């Protein structure tokens, strides 16, 4: 008798390149490559990765119609409906990039975060929970103004056209956005590297595979799946395979500075 294989749907952010994004009907990106390497060693499960808009995916997780989603950061108080998290999948550097015009105001002095950013217009991606309460408190006090853009490339375009002064995102995501714009052939991309620069790494965040509370009791295999996923992820890390996946990914896309 052949043991049955459990079908599992995993939700992926469809617009967070190069980490997780849609290409046609397929999920692509660094997290996808890492997770596929883990799932390859979980033969009891047939995993289907579904790229969906981030907010839609979170809504499904909140309703219990979604089993798991990636790659959220760890915000249990802000997203209580994500009731379990895997071991950390990847460390991401969260960086502040600004236009050279904004930085030029400080002449030879490198601006210091956050005291030198009074009045700055700072772009972030939609639904992007990051940084600490002090960051958001300065926004509430109108010390600077945080604006949500459509995605990373749109924020870079706004920065180039001086509708933003700075943007905050994963460092690799911003480097990817620069690369995409440089290769697009658009006139605004000419001299792109001369228009913005990295000012500071503000913190590091870890991305996870997160699981719903299963309020509809649709996933009786949930606990066993999480345990096995964590075991196989640990093996991938300890063997050095995860580091090789990251290095090869960045080298292939010429994202390594």
From TrEMBL:
<dbReference type="InterPro" id="IPR001638">
    <property type="entry name" value="Solute-binding_3/MltF_N"/>
</dbReference>
<feature type="domain" description="Solute-binding protein family 3/N-terminal">
    <location>
        <begin position="10"/>
        <end position="247"/>
    </location>
</feature>
<dbReference type="Pfam" id="PF00497">
    <property type="entry name" value="SBP_bac_3"/>
</dbReference>
<protein>
    <recommendedName>
        <fullName>Solute-binding protein family 3/N-terminal domain-containing protein</fullName>
    </recommendedName>
</protein>
């Amino acid at each position: 008798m052949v043991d049955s294989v459990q079908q599992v749907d995993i939700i992926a952010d469809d617009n967070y390149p190069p980490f997780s994004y849609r290409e046609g009907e397929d999920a692509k990106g660094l997290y996808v490559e890492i997770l596929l390497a883990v799932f390859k060693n979980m033969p009891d499960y047939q995993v289907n990765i579904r790229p969906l808009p981030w907010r839609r995916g979170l809504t499904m997780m909140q309703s219990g119609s979604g089993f798991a989603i990636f790659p959220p950061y760890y915000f249990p108080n802000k997203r209580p409906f994500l009731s379990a998290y895997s071991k950390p999948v990847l460390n991401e550097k969260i960086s502040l990039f600004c236009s050279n015009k904004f930085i030029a105001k400080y002449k030879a002095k490198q601006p210091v975060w956050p005291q030198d950013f009074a009045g700055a217009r700072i772009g972030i991606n939609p639904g992007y929970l990051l940084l600490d309460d002090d960051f958001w408190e300065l926004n509430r006090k109108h010390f600077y103004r945080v604006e949500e853009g459509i995605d990373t490339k749109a924020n870079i375009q706004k920065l180039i056209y001086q509708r933003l002064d700075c943007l905050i995102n994963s460092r690799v995501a911003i480097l990817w956005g620069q690369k995409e714009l440089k290769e697009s052939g658009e006139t605004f991309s000419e001299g792109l590297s001369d228009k913005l620069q990295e000012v500071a790494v503000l913190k590091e965040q870890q991305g996870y595979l997160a699981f719903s509370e299963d309020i509809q009791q649709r996933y009786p295999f949930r606990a066993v799946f999480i345990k096995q996923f964590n075991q196989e992820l640990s093996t991938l890390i300890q063997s050095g395979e995860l580091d090789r996946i990251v290095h090869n990914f960045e080298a292939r896309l010429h994202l390594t500075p």
